[in-house]
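Q: How would the structure tokens look for this protein?
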Amino acid sequence: MPEKNNPFLGFEVKKCLMVILSKTIAHPLELIANRKKAVRYPFTASNGKTYSGTILGISQQLADEGFVNMRGLIVNCLAYIPAQAINSALKDPVKSFFKNVFIIEKDTSYFKRLLCNVFAGGMMGALSLTVFYGLNRYVTVSGLPPECVTEPSTIYDLYSGYGLSVLGVMLYRGAYFGMYDMMKPFLKGSGFWGKLTIGYSVTTLAGLIVYPISTIQLMQVVRCCTASKAIAIIHDHPDGLWEGYMGGWELNVARGLLGTMVLVASDYLKA
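A: Here is the predicted structure in token form.
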């Protein structure tokens, strides 16, 4: 019988199932958001049809392509559990390491604690991405038209955007924890809907802050190029810089709502 403190069994099965359910529900939104960022519309597909860049137009394109778009979802769901197990195993050693680096004590300043959390999260994100980056790339490009994707020819191409992914994790954690700590006094005595509203607001704002970086990273993944080349492609967007960097942001906000509901619901399951 495995020990209760086994790090590889430290994640909760119920939470994993809820996250997988959330990923399944949000998958169409992710597909549409990625296409708004990576595909230039109007787009003429291999079937001869031309699609607009509206949500309805992209939805019609996805419907015409059929089940092929669900391949990435299956891989994403299957990869979640081992990724979560690795994160659970690394969480305590990495946190302990950075607490020693930053010399975290009871009277340590808030800013120093925040930096410790950001760097610890960045390290865990980097280690996890190193293992699963190839799968993450497959999940992303499998939902895009093949005509828009550049296949990697070297290991360097396969890991295009890796550095920005790690940077995005660190910036997201910094923004998230910074805003969450500011909102903590409002959490006392708040019920389900209060926690949901605060959690959703913090998640949404943190996501929007790092969204331009996410767009550059996505373009690197799709085109197997450097960050400077990805930025040049984004700046050539026919609908302007806002659509180039922030295309699909409203769909990301909707996905954030699903993620927040999962986190809040899992907290109530613990109780």
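The CA atoms of residues 141 and 158 lie 12 Å apart.

The first helix runs from residue 13 to 38.

Upvote if useful.
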